Amino acid sequence: MQDFPTVQLPESILDLPQVRAQWPGTCFVCSQGHPHGLRLRFHHTDVGVACVCRIPAGYCGFDGMVHGGIISALMDEAAAYSLFARHGKLGVTREMQTRFLKPVPTETEIRVVGQIVSFAATQAEVSMAIFDAAGQRLAEGRTFWAFPRLSRIAALAGVEEAVLQRFLDDCQVVE
């Protein structure tokens, strides 16, 4: 079994600066306006982002355990926000590897962390993990990203390029 890059859990996530931007679309994971969404809000770390959240019971696989697809979506979103926040880049996931270590319980506080492993103009690698409130690692993964032109993403998403650029600008750390 291949080892994933180690993801460190920040000590006090809620004390870190919050990513100001809110996605302008209806993303299931992060948009505040999605009627059934998770509405995650990320905080800046030195190498990516982290968030504290609670997944409702309705997103279970087996009762009391978060569905594996939701776990993967949480980590993919942490990877995306890591790239938004640290490099101002909007990309697409080319590949994702996920390892489910222990059940992720619904209706309990968890931490989702994304950390950039490598970054270049055309590609990146981001590692992610989910921890329980005590800091125990429940799931981990890595994603590989490509960066199409912003105009291409805007055309595919039906969003003005300027709206996406403002979002990326607002994701950056405010000093």
- Using only CA atoms, what is the Rg? 15 Å
What portion of residues belong to β-strands? 25-35%
Class by SSE composition: alpha+beta
Query: What is the general shape?
Result: globular
How far apart lie the N and C ends?
41 Å
Can you walk me through this structure?
- There is one protein chain.
- It contains 3 helices and 6 strands.
- It has 175 residues and is α+β, with helices and mostly antiparallel strands.
- Strands 1-2-4-5-6-3 form a 6-stranded antiparallel sheet, covered by helices on one side.
- It is globular, with a radius of gyration of 15 Å.
- It starts with 42 loop residues before the first strand and ends with a helix.
- The mean pLDDT is 94.
Give descriptors for this structure:
175 residues, alpha+beta, 3 helices, 22% helix, 28% strand
Question: Which helices and strands occur, and which strands form pairs?
Answer:
Elements: E1 43-44, E2 48-54, H1 68-87, E3 92-100, E4 109-119, E5 123-132, E6 137-146, H2 150-157, H3 161-171
Antiparallel strand pairs: 1-2, 2-4, 3-6, 4-5, 5-6
